[in-house]
Design a protein that fits this description.
It contains 7 helices and 9 strands. It is an alpha/beta fold and 240 residues long. It has one domain: Rossmann fold (3-Layer(aba) Sandwich). Strands 6-5-7-8-9 form a 5-stranded parallel sheet, with helices on both faces. Helix 2 packs across helix 7. The N terminus is likely disordered.
Length: 240
């Protein structure tokens, strides 16, 4: 799959554009929301599988010598492909309501190889200087019959986080995986992995992307992985 990043001359923000033969998908630039074609009126409560798919202990970060849940981060950077807004547009309001930052950088149809080749994560790290990094990459790589060739790119992306708390949100498998997920898990270094395959996520008409109902369930799982308390707002994300 190919990808293009365009710049809106009006505001200077980068926006991802799908390739001509790619299905319509949501995308977002820094602190900008995306709207998919189908938006349900009210997402249902998260299923039992959502509540049990996370690791035993939440991800943490160090602040002034104290160990705190990663959900308390002041500057969050969420990067990846078109799956990013489906989680990010639900989590961002939680951080923004008390003045914290949740930056989104997504590129439609992108992969670990394209992010590594263009050093996109390295650039974003210098731009935003986050204390927590979320990565949503892999959905466009499940079909690779030689997934091991992606291991070096995964390692470099992990290195680009500079050792800061990192959660890799695994792809919600929408087609047969030929070993990419296992390669991903084996090369994550200090980054935590969230197994999205275990979640029950309703899909959009394209069969790939979770619907906003699925995105809500997904965001709940991520929030709990970060040690978040309280409910994730269930209002439908809409453009600014």
């Amino acid at each position: 799959m190919s990808l293009t990043v365009a710049c809106n001359p009006a505001d200077g923000k980068a926006q991802a554009q799908p390739a001509p033969d790619s299905p319509a998908v949501p995308s977002a630039s820094s602190e900008a929301k995306a709207v998919p074609s189908a938006v349900p009126s009210s997402p249902p409560a998260p299923s039992a599988s959502t509540r049990t798919a996370t690791s035993p202990k939440p991800l943490t970060l160090e602040v002034d010598g104290k160990t705190l849940p990663a959900a308390s981060a002041k500057r969050v950077l969420h990067v990846g492909d078109s799956m990013v807004p489906l989680v990010g547009n639900y989590l961002r309001p939680i951080f923004q309501k008390d003045g914290r930052k949740y930056y989104i950088e997504s590129v439609t149809s992108s992969s670990t190889l394209s992010w590594d080749n263009k050093r996109l994560l390295q650039d974003a790290m210098y731009k935003y200087d986050p204390d927590l990094i979320l990565i949503s990459l892999g959905s466009n790589e499940l079909f690779d019959r030689n997934p091991q060739r992606r291991a070096p790119a995964i390692k470099r992306l992990v290195a680009d986080t500079r050792g800061r708390p990192c959660l890799w949100i695994g792809p919600p498998a929408w087609k047969q995986d030929y070993g990419f997920i296992e390669v991903l898990k084996q090369n994550l270094g200090h980054c935590r992995y969230l197994d999205s395959v275990a979640l029950k996520l309703p899909r959009m008409a394209d069969g790939r992307h979770p619907s906003w109902t699925g995105g809500y369930r997904w965001s709940v799982a991520v929030w709990k992985e970060l040690g978040g308390t309280g409910e994730v707002p269930d209002g439908n994300p809409r453009p600014d």
